[in-house]
Write a structure and sequence with these properties.
Elements: H1 6-29, H2 36-49, E1 53-54, E2 66-70, E3 73-75, E4 89-98, E5 101-110, H3 117-136, H4 143-156, E6 160-161, E7 167-169, E8 176-180, E9 197-200, E10 203-205, E11 211-213, E12 220-222, E13 228-230, E14 233-238, E15 241-244
Antiparallel strand pairs: 1-4, 2-4, 3-12, 4-5, 6-10, 7-8, 7-9, 9-14, 10-13, 11-12, 14-15
Helix pairs in contact: 1-2, 3-4
The structure holds magnesium ion (2 copies).
């Protein structure tokens, strides 16, 4: 496993902060009628204006900078001429390469101003699941502890987590060891060590956790077409505990 030095974590902290600022702008730009490829163009411009590079463009053949996944799409949705509609649940997932290191983060938002209580609950539970996972990621704990804490919390709220898509280590590569599932057995899996940097990214579903391939050829969707939310932070395990780098 690839542990990072404090100097490397400092670079990732800088990159993570830039990524968070870019996501703030993108989230504020989500509105009824915008094409998802417009959000992708904005992401490209914002990234190059900050001297960074997109992590996902051409990664495993993905032809865009930003992943935009809507409603039953879980992750990896391809930006297109499709327009956002009132009440859509949109997930924006973005990675950037800055000074040699990748950071990765995702947000979930509801399009428009109409109250959607069940969708908002799904987003709130996903956000809290990520918080629970991060709080559990203390040095000496295991990734099984982290996944277990996320899954138990999500189940307690009446939802479930996707099994086939998981978080990951991150650094000079966007996907590094270890795997970071959103489920697990306490005490099992790799032990969290100082200098580990991981992306924790619960994908929380209203229905069943089984997934299928989406019609755009890139997105994964829920097999039952029910809604899915996704929120992600890149975090470092430091002497002071887990630190969110993408804020
Ligand atoms: Mg991501
Ligand atoms: Mg990720």
């Amino acid at each position: 496993m690839n542990l990072k030095t404090p100097q490397e974590i400092e670079l990732m902290r800088e990159g993570g902060h830039i990524l968070a600022e870019i996501l703030d702008v993108l989230v504020a730009s989500v509105k009824v009628g915008i094409q998802t490829k417009e959000l992708d163009s904005m992401a490209q411009e914002l990234i190059s204006a900050r001297g960074a590079k997109p992590s996902f463009l051409n990664y495993n053949g993905f032809p865009a900078t930003l992943c935009v996944s809507i409603n039953e799409e879980i992750v990896h949705g391809l930006p297109s001429e499709r327009k956002l509609k009132d009440g859509d649940l949109v997930k924006l997932d973005l990675g950037i390469l800055y000074k040699g290191f990748h950071t990765d983060s995702a947000r979930s938002v509801i399009v428009g101003s109409t109250q959607r209580l069940q969708i908002q609950k799904l987003i709130d539970v996903t956000a809290e699941a990520l918080c629970v996972g991060i709080k559990t990621a203390q040095p000496g704990k295991t990734l099984g502890d982290v996944g277990h804490a996320i899954h138990e919390y999500v189940k307690s709220q009446g939802f479930d987590v996707v099994r086939d898509l998981i978080g990951h280590g991150i650094g000079t590569e966007v996907h590094e060891e270890p795997e970071v599932p959103n489920y697990g057995k306490p005490g099992h899996g790799p032990i969290l060590k100082l200098g580990m940097v991981i992306a924790i990214e619960p994908m929380v579903v209203m229905g069943g956790y089984r997934i299928a391939n989406g019609p755009d050829g890139y997105a994964y969707i829920t097999a039952d077409k029910k809604l899915s939310a996704h929120i992600e932070h890149t975090i470092a395990i430091t002497g002071n505990g887990p630190e969110i780098l993408t804020k």
